[in-house]
Amino acid sequence: MPPNKRNGKIDLLRFVFSIMVVVFHFNKTLYDYRLFAKGYIAVEFFFIVSGFLFAQSLAKRPYQKDTLIQDSMGFMKRKFGTFFPYHLFFFVVCFCYTAVIQRWNPELMLSHLLLAAPDLALIQMGGISSLSLLRYEWYVSVMLMVMFLLTPLAIRWRKLFLYYLCPILFVGLTGYLYQQYHTLNVSRDWNGLFYVGLLRAAAEIALGCIGYAVYEKGIFRKVPKLLLLLTEVCIYILVILYSSEYLSDLGDFTILFLLAIAVPISFSEQTDIGFLNNRFSYFLGKLSFPIYLSQLFVLQIVKSYSFGSPALHTLLFVGGTIIVSLICILVTDSLLRLIRYWHSKRPSISADSHTDSP
Questions:
Q1: Which of 21, 63, 273, 326 is deepest in the core (most CB within 10 A)?
Q2: Rounded to a whole number, what is the distance in angstroms from the first to the last CA of the chain?
Q3: What is the spatial distance between Cα 167 and Cα 155, in angstroms, rounded to a whole number?
């Protein structure tokens, strides 16, 4: 699939895996039932996809010694810009909601706002956050931090990065996580220097980069399409079953390796499913990030209601996250269009003012 073309299948999978994550957090908070009880494993999909797209994006960027820092910062600025508007929406919503519920006075509001500055800047996983309004954003925070560190290396030494550094990062960090925790469900464990979630992100983003290196070699073009499709579908079914505590003996790390196979296959032209490349699939992919962000806010509201059926309660929660996410997209995108329109008018206004001046 061409690098600039959206992948409807990946977007659809993003939506499915985001639902898995939010149900996992809801289950962990209120209930103890089987559905997506290991839904944290969906985060591995997001890290691997992020690593794949990270390597794909930088593959088009030639190295220029004089502009390496500017190119790296420019890439990260655009990456940060894709997340920040939706993050800002939920930061404001959660901060205001918490202030009202906990009845903060103006002095306390100012104090908490200052404490939440790392959360606002998406660097809370650096270890300096003491007020986590959006604690589930740890995934976005570590992803951006890891990419910030890796971007100049990936531009300057592209082949060395893909074929040497990434395998070392993946094997070394995954081995550490396996020996220390025997699970991938770690994020805010502090090891004395940083949160372990940073290692999880670095290992799996590196794995996504390795997947792109394999994809780039055209290996999948040599494999029959039907075999690739069957492999891809079977892996995702296994992941979903595992997330609901079936086939538990496979273990987190086996699932990680299986996802490392499935994600590059999903990006391959060989397995492109044309009817999935439509606006609805693309929109579901776009919706997945606000869903991830909205879950904590919606959880605070719906958890106080009592339901006889956990399934009904869960359905209300998922429906609420989708509705709030739609509102986020509507408000945020409208504001962004307004800002772009305002900026587009500024040069003409300046030119007119200059012309009319004496």
A1: 21
A2: 56
A3: 17
Q: Name the residue among 216, 244, 289, 247 with its Cα closest to residue 60.
A: 216
Say if residue 199's pLDDT is above 90: yes
**pLDDT value at residue 357:** 34
User: What region does 206 belong to: left with phi over 0, alpha with psi -120 to 50, or beta?
Assistant: alpha
Cα 207 to Cα 150: distance, rounded to the nearest angstrom: 13
Residue with tokens 């890439």: 75
For 112-133, what is the mean pLDDT? 84
User: Does pTM top 0.85 for this prediction?
Assistant: yes
Model confidence at 277: pLDDT above 60:
yes
Q: How many CB atoms lie within 10 A of CB 78?
A: 10
Structure tokens at 338: 């307004």
Closest of 76, 56, 78 to residue 208, by C-alpha: 56
Region 3-25 average pLDDT: 89
Residue for token pair 């739609």: 326
Q: Is the CB of residue 184 less than 8 Å from the CB of residue 41?
A: yes
Instruction: Evaluate whether 170 touches 207 at the Cβ level (below 8 Å).
Output: yes
